[in-house]
Amino acid sequence: MNDPILKVCLAPIEISWGDKDANLKSLEDILNRVHPETDLLVLPETFSTGFPSDLDKEQFRLLAEKNTGETIDIIKKYSSEYCMAIAGSFIADTGGLLFNRAFFIEPSGDEYFADKRHLFSLGGEDQILKAGDSRMNLRYRGWNISMIVCYDLRFPIWCRNKNNEYDLMLAVANWPVKRIDTWDTLLKARAIENEAYVCGVNCRGIDNKGAEYNGSSHLFDYRGKEIAVKTNDNMLYASLSMQKLTTYRERFPFWKDAEDFCLEK
User: Fold this and answer.
1) Run of H or E residues at 183
2) Is this model's pTM higher than 0.85 or not?
3) Is 26 helix (H, G, I), strand (E, B) or coil?
4) Contact criterion met (CB below 8 Å) for 200 and 183
5) Pairing state of beta strands 197-201 and 168-172?
6) Among the options 116, 125, 195, 199, which is catalytic?
7) Catalytic position from the list 9, 20, 45, 125
8) To the nearest whole percent, how much of the chain has pLDDT over 90?
9) Could you give the CA distance from residue 82 to residue 243 in angstroms, rounded to a whole number?
10) How far is CA 134 from the centre of its chain?
11) Percentages helix, strand, coil for the chain, rounded to the nearest 5?
12) Lowest-confidence segment of 51-60, 141-150, 154-163 by average pLDDT
């Protein structure tokens, strides 16, 4: 049986808050070090700007871009050049409305976008951005992949893997140290309850309000076992086996007993 292995690199970069040029330079440095056999590179939430929560909406707008802006253009260039998909999120401007937008860019140039569903009201995100209404789902190199952004992780119904529609869920975040145990625990729980691989990539650094981020990032398998291996340069790598996932789902078909439901918009 052919086993499509997906090789994933997690890059918990240190974000320079509000400094897009510095963050895009950091991405270039990472790509110069990433293993050449990597299929998918995952970056943190709002990797090119950080989340400047103390700015008003008009200041925030200055950091936003369209899907055809500098950040996505650079991601497309690197994805093609290094022959790997790149995923993360950025602050997007569509028709004057602002979004925290997840992206998944393939080497072929195919692109996927979905906006963060649950806005972090405790930090005022809901006062600046508009919430999304659909979760990203795509197929890449034989894998069904879904993607969520940060606070979305707290909401299991939004993350629910109905009828095994995804094999891998990506979660990108700016999740502070003071709540990091929650992040670590929820990632593991989402993997176990959904019988899927779950990859969570957090950032490092100090934001513009003094909150600390330690880059805690993980790739859990369908049993909740950590499989990512950290290197000396703070990158993490994992190889995902479709054959092992399929065998586990056949042996323990818990997903068949899940309730059927739909979310009202």
Assistant:
1) helix 180-194
2) yes
3) helix
4) yes
5) parallel
6) 116
7) 45
8) 83
9) 26
10) 15
11) 30, 30, 40
12) 51-60
